[in-house]
Each structure stands twice: as C-alpha cells, then as structure tokens.
Amino acid sequence: MSDLSDLYQDVILDHYKRPRNRGHLDDTDHQADGQNPLCGDHVTVFVKVKDDRVEEIRFAGSGCAISTASASLMTETVKGKTLDEAKAFFRKFHDMVTGSQEVDHGDGLGKLEVFSGVCQYPVRVKCATLAWHTLDAALENREEPVSTE
Amino acid sequence: MSLITPTTARVEASVTDEAFDAEELRRDFPALQQSIGDEPLVYLDNAATTQKPSSVIDAIGRFYREDNANIHRGVHQLSIRATDGYESARLKAARFIGASRPEEIIFVRGATEAINLVAQTFGRVHIGTGDEVLISHMEHHANIVPWQILCEQTGARLCVAPINDRGELILEEFERMLGPRTRLLSIGHVSNALGTINPMERIIALAHERGIPVLVDGAQAVPHMKVNVQALDADFYTFSGHKAFGPTGIGVLYGKHDLLQKLPPYQGGGDMIASVTFEKTTYNAVPHKFEAGTPHIAGAIGLAAALDYMDAVGMERIAQYESELLAYATHALLSIPQVHLVGTARNKAGVLSFTIEGVHPHDAATILDQQGVAVRAGHHCAQPVMQRFNVPATIRASLAFYNTTEEIDALVRGIQKVIEVFN
What we know:
The complex is a heterodimer.
Chain A lengths: L3 H4 L2 H8 L12 E7 L4 E10 L2 E10 L2 H14 L4 H16 L26 H15 L10
Antiparallel strand pairs in A: 1-2, 2-3
Chain B lengths: L21 H5 L8 E2 L2 E2 L1 E2 L10 H14 L9 H20 L8 E4 L2 H16 L5 E5 L8 H10 L2 E5 L9 H7 L4 E7 L11 H10 L4 E4 L11 H4 L3 E5 L10 E5 L1 H5 L11 E4 L4 E3 L13 H17 L1 H20 L4 E4 L8 E6 L4 H10 L2 E2 L1 E3 L4 H6 L5 E5 L6 H17 L2
Parallel strand pairs in B: 3-15, 5-6, 5-7, 7-8, 8-9
Antiparallel strand pairs in B: 1-2, 4-10, 9-10, 11-12, 13-14, 14-17, 16-17
Helix pairs in contact in B: 2-10, 3-10, 4-5, 11-14, 12-14
C-alpha cells in the first residue's frame, strides 16, 4: 500500500489551504464549468487570452484537497504560457496522473509532479483532472459543463 | 404453496449466551477476515451494503450446485426443489416482518424497485392531477425520484415534510401537510444519511386518521431492529436483501393483501399471467401478478438464509447491541473537537454522519482507507439532506452487529491521522 505522503504532499496541502488565483474574472470570453456531482466538487475556470497566450486565469468553486490544489497549481502553471503550451501541460499531466506514462523529470511538469502519487489512487484521478478538463473546455468555448466522473 | 422450512441457514457462532459476542459472530463473515495493506479491515459502510455470513454464501452455492432449475409449473425434481426454496423464502420473509400471509410478499430487486412498483401501480391508479404525494426531507433518492416521475406522468404534486436541525421530522408540520389531496405518504423508517428513526407507528396513525395509505422504506430498519408490519399497520413496506446480510439484486415489497389484489400488474411477461390469447390476457393471483419473468431464485434463497441468521442472533439483541455501540461511537467522535456530527436525532440507528473541520470528506475517506477503515464519503444518495445541513458531503460510518468498540477506536485513530495530515 502506498504511503499517504505520496498523495498529500506539502505543496498540495499548501495549495488546498491557500489556493492561488482563486476568484472571478470579469469580461472573459473563455469560461467553463466543471462538476463532479457524486463528489460535490465544482469548479469554474475563467481565462483571458491575449496574442494566443493565457494572460490571466482564475478559478472558483469548492472541492477536495486534490481538486482544489490541482486547480490552483494549474493556474500558476499555465499563466503566461501559449495555448499550445497549456494544452501540452494538460496532456502530460493527464498521462502522469492516470499512470499511462512514467514521470520523467525532464518533462518540465515542474511543481505539477507533486500529483504523481495520484496514479496510485485511481478513484482520485477524477479529482486531479477536473480543473484541467474544465480549462480545456473554456479554451474551446464548450458550453456543456465538464465532468470527470 | 409449500410450507417446507429450508435448511439453508445456520449460525456457526454461539448466540445463546447472555452477553452479545460480536467478536465471535464476525467469524461467520469471510470478508471481514482480511487486511487492507497492513491493517485489519474495519468495515463501517453497512448502510451502503452489509457483508454476508457463510450460511448465505453457502445457500446460494448449494442452490446452483444442487437444485438449479426454473420455478413453478415444473414437474421434475429440480424444479420442485427450486420452487420449494423460492416459496419457502417468501414464507420466511413474511414471518420475519410479521406479514399475515406469504402472498403479501413480492420479491423485487431491492427497495428502489419496490418504490417504483408502488408508484407505477398504486400511483397510476390512485394519484391524479392535483393530488399530492407526501415524503420527508430526509428521504433517499429512491424515495424521491420515483414520485417525481409519477408526478410528471399524472400532474400530481410532490410535497416534502420538513426536518429540524437534529434531523428529526417536525411532527406538527408533518401533520399539517397531510391534506385533503394527499393520496399517499411515502417515508423512510430510518434515514440512511442521518440515522434518524422515525416514530413510525405515530406517523402511520396520523396518516390513517385521514384515510391516507402509507409506504414505508425500511431499507435501513429491517437489518437493525425488529419490524412488524402489522403492528405498524403499514400499507406497504419494503427492504433490500443486500443491506440485511443477504445477496444483492433481491428485496421485498410487502403490501396488504386486499390492497395488492386491486392493483394492476407492474410488468408483463411470463409467470404473471393466468392465461394468454392475442385477444385477452388474464393475470395471475398476487403475488405472482407482480413478478413477471424468471425471478432471482438464488437471491431469494440467499435472503432466506440471511433472515434465518438474523433470527438466530435475535433482532432485539442486535438492536440493543448496536444502540450501545452507537452510544460509544458518538461519545468517541464528539471527543474530537474538529468533528461535527450531522444528524443528532434523539432516537437514532447506527449511522454516524460527520464532517471534519478544514478537510473535505473525500480526502478523509482516502486517508481512513489507507488505515483499513472503510467509510463512505459523499451525499449518500440524499442530496436534499446535504442541502438542508448546508454541507456538500459528509463522511458516514455506519454500523452492523459485527462491529466492535475496537473498530470504533480504529476509526477514531484514523480521524486523528486525517487531522494530523491536514493540521
């Protein structure tokens, strides 16, 4: 059985207790809702895009430590990045938490590597990926709320 | 109807002693004998489903190994044995909940199907536009959604009797809501999310004073207390086998005989007919009218073994022991300042719904699971209850007679670990 500290790393707990970029953004043309009704997790992601880059990003909502910290670290990671870079992060992050790809420290996932323990908790993958799927929906202007359940 | 008593169940542990020996009874449950990682399993998710004693598992295995055949109309030996087993299970279920005759027992998939059955038979006949169905705020989704579907179909209205901050039905409000258009009261005996035991005799009497029939969802009551449908004077009563130490996919709907006789069938098919021509079909007598198709024969036989097991232990003793265990657990949880109980009814069954300050229930459940403690986190199929108490979810530890004070201590240690991780 895996060690608890693999999942609840200090960085995750820190971002759960003090989420970064939490709040609303007015006048955004990229916004989407994500919700996992069985868990009660819900998140809204707001993005301002300028010159093909994520100029500003915020998230609102509530959820467990994994989903909240994931949303918080996601906003820190993609802020200032190009849309292609943001999508590449999503793909790599997804591969890491679903365990479909080994984490390679040269991958440039940076702080997001704190979520590498999630792949040992398959029922929690949906928590870690909710914000990312919601960001993806926001960037593509999909209106249907996202769910990872 | 066969009145053969099946020899399916056997309590291996001695239960004749004065003291209730949960430690000894747990040995009858193979799934409880395992470890999760390095920790012994502490199974506290009994409101979701209970573990099964060997006698139940063996009864199902024996049926498939020795007696497997389709029931009714069979001339050969296996079919006769299968029919005996199935109909004996009906008799056993009737005796277990105090029905006046076995024909009042309809086998269904579970309490959910039973409520849908009543909604689509009784409801379609007796509930029309402008009529009302009354439920309470503490119902499981299974006792909400079938009525919403019926209301959409008929133009009836669903009314909800409120609960107080302890999670108890507010009887004065409830009584006021029993109106001239109320055609049915459908209410849980014990709340799965809060543990509240409703004062069912009083509630049913109040409804009957106004000529309103009552369906009782007893899914959380039958495994934990002595239930007698005639003493309650319930018109319909339902429970699920798998929450009562029996198999999944089998449950019971009790209905008063004269009430059942007047109802239209639920589903059409084999076994529910008396004769069929393309011009005219006549239906079989109750209960068969409501059991279209080949039923869950092995499930009914497994359920009978579970009822035998509970009978041998004794429902009064089970209720008494669980009440003491609940008191122990409540005291233990309240001694942790960060823990808040949701559902503090004065008359309560073994359900502890709670939150931990600063910790989402799913994180708590994951950390508890790491220590071998199986609890449920979420809305427990009772989202209106969560809304009432303004929480997105709770952690729920639910007890059965095979749980021990040592397991409650393990839960408490687990919660302390959760608090330590999130401090």
